[in-house]
Amino acid sequence: MDPTSPPSSLHGANNSIRAAIMAVVVGLLAGYLCLWVMMPTNTYRQTWLPHLRAHTTSTYFGTAQGATYLVFTFPVLLIALLGCLYLHLSNKSSHIHHTHTSNKLAIWKRPMMVKGLGIVSRIELAFFLMFIALLVWNLANYLHVGFAKITSKSAAETGEKMWEAKLDTAALRLGLVGNIALSFLFFPVTRGSSVLPLFGLTSEASVKYHIWLGHTVMMFFTAHGLCYIIFWASTHQISEMLKWEKTGISNVAGELSLLAGLMLWGATFPQIRRKTFELFFYTHHLYILFLIFFVLHVGIGYACIMLPGFFLFMIDRYLRFLQSRRGVRLLSARVLPCQTVELIFSKSKGLSYTPTSIMFLNVPSISKLQWHPFTITSSSNLESDKLSVIVKVEGSWSNKLHQLLSSPSPVDRLEASVEGPYGPPSTDFLRHDLLVMVSGGSGITPFISIIRELTYAGETLKLKTPKVLLISAFKNSTDLTILDLILPISGAPSEIFKSGLQIEAYVTREEHPTTQETKFIRTVWFKPNPSDAPISPILGQNNWLWLGAIISSSFIIYLIFIGILTRYYIYPIDHNTNTIYPSASRALLHILFICISVVVAATTVFLWNKSGNARESVQIQNLEGATPQASPNSWYYNADRELESLPQQSLSQSINVHYGERPDLKRFLFERKESSVGVLVCGPKKMRHEVANICSSGLAANLHFESISFSW
Fold first, then answer.
1. pLDDT digit string (tens) for 51-84?
2. CB 358, CB 418: distance < 8 Å
3. Residue 216: partners with Cβ closer than 8 Å, 6 or more residues away
């Protein structure tokens, strides 16, 4: 394209390319899902599959693996690559505008309350029902085809009763259907994925899909295992449980995989997860044993059906590991009287993220293994060199952090590592005339970043920004001090108030303002360490292109390794019979080469970008100097300042405080006369459900609901 083309032409070409990419992605996705629909049918097993294997069998990939790569692996990885290109082109547009939703799509994105599922959009509900239909279709067809082959004569020939033969068939089919859910299990938790944002999703908001899929996987696999145990017991073949065949299915490996899965599954239920989070956290790492023994159980040929999701997850997990190895520069902390801490980090100007993004934080002095997600409250545009998160005391980890920083002699340095940020590729707040933000307690955190981003849009970009009505409910009046964090730690706040910010704060457990001793906010400055670096994008500014390079190169390296291994080592022994070379050895070699390929490709790209990040880090450290500007003679500075019943005077003009009552959300929402009202809610489940019911009632067509995910 001509470099002198006007911006409108470039923008139009950008949109055309993205539209073409999305069309290809939709086609690939439709074909991929069609395969899952056809998989249990005789047409697939007797016509399509033999034809595919006849054209893909080779001395490099054996008899079955080439076909599996072609129809199950390549389409998904190609979608991921196209997603990287699509998101790279999208980054050329602003994060806070240029993303407009059509009226038809807006209707599909409206929330619905579904018992057992909570708040879901019509799109989510449609996909959920289609996925359930896919599972039912596969199970019904598998059983229909399998049972059709069972007769009294065939059962008698194997010394089985009819019900025993059918139980044997049903047990196998339950495992096959469980593998469908397993194939999609890792997509929602691949935080740096290009697949999720391609469809407007984030990893934080997609955790619920991972939960649903996890329960589905374990229900089918548990039923699969129990049916086989009952079958073996009834046919006096209980010794089958101890068999580990040289080739083919390994029963022992399947039992070990199921055992690891059951231990993991048991700790995921809310009653256990909420009371003993550490148990949930550590047992969740049993997924490694679960997957290894699963591959040893079914063999690498069949396990490659679920390879794409896990392959992308491994790339993401290794990149997060590389990012987490280096300490980050923690500048200061603001300790609030409501057992809340704001941590302010140094960041590179090249790191950009959207409002409502999250970041995972590790503090080795508290726990070397625990990582906790927190919502980012800063704006990467308004505060180009700083990043802040808010930590509320909710458990043992956050309590230890608060004790370290609130003691009379706080630590002068706090080591920290991060993973992220992760967030939506874009947001669409400017299309509304009014934003109504409803929060309960700690749910206010994502709204702070949105307000700051709107401030940037109005002050710097000179865009028309919507008015903001923030409705916040707190238990105690000391919690009101968190409203002070709406203001950045530096910079003029004037534009926040010019934009029409109104705050309605409700203190539910106090009938009137307290007369207790005035509370203070204390700022603690930390001593810099030369080895610490500002938070920077792990793959540089063109991170999506580099991610695409990692995905493609790592898979090509893996194919080369496997091709050489099969052609010059396994094939001379096995000759594509799959009856001589041990299945376990073949599977372990594949796992090893997948790991090597990911490590080689990701490490190469990481080191290539690390040099650029290091140069920027040196520049930032030179600008920062040896000590904070506010503290010329000490490494920490207690900036105690009095807080009245409300925060700073400028902010207090926008706040109305109500004591001893809860907000009347119906009145606030139904009374809005603006043509487009964006409604965002973040807080307790009851509050989210109430707002969702109001917006989905159909009584006010101008209300557009969005549920915000947050971490505190």
1. 988 888 888 888 878 888 989 999 999 999 999 9
2. no
3. 135, 178, 181
